[in-house]
Amino acid sequence: MARIVYSMLTSLDGYIAGPDGDIGLPVPETELHQHFNDMMRQASVVLAGRRMYEMMRFWDSPDRETGATEVERDFAGAWRETPKIVFSATLRQVGPNARLVNDDAQATVRSLKAGTEGLIILGGADLAAGLARAGLIDEYRLYMHPIVLGGGKPYFQSGLSLALKPLGTESLAQGVTLLRYAPAG
Predict the structure, then answer these.
(1) Where are the domains of the chain?
(2) pLDDT single digits (tens) 143-169
(3) Residue 17 predicted with pLDDT over 80
(4) Is 178 exposed, middle or buried, given 0-12, 13-18 or 19+ CB atoms closer than 10 A?
(5) How many Cβ atoms sit within 10 Å of the Cβ of residue 128?
(6) I need a surface site. Which of 23, 60, 75, 114 has the fewest CB within 10 A?
(7) Is 3-183 a CATH 3.40.430.10 domain?
(8) What is d(CA 108, CA 179) in angstroms, rounded to the nearest whole number?
(9) How crowded is residue 174: how many other Cβ atoms within 10 Å of its Cβ?
(10) Can you give the pTM of this predicted structure?
């Protein structure tokens, strides 16, 4: 059975994007980027909502193979190699190595989790909130940048109530602190 990890960069005040929808967080530099590359290479599958998937499609571009730094080329390769499941009621098609699901996300993820080994990476706050309510997330990873956005899109959706137990912390490059939690149940 796979483990589902909800993993996002956040501000100190808990936002994954600022009030205007822009990410507003510093771009990962080489050392931090390599951490995310390593995690992507460990993933069996990536789960994403529409907005997260559309943002990450940047890595599908052939330009990422030649015009980027070595660490970015490595991430682009890992992204393209990792199967993706995109949950959206509005998209009609998705790119390479991706499957579109526009109905019951919880049932799809429950089946995927039972039939997959390894790590499943989850990105996107709205999708994560529904899966958290269903008890399908095994770990929460908050990569906290030393920046305050003052509002915007929160890592945890408003109204979501969870009891969590700490799994550990880690200091990373760029002043980022990784906070890891699991459901307390």
Answers:
(1) 3-183
(2) 999 999 999 999 999 999 999 999 999
(3) yes
(4) middle
(5) 26
(6) 114
(7) yes
(8) 28
(9) 16
(10) 0.93
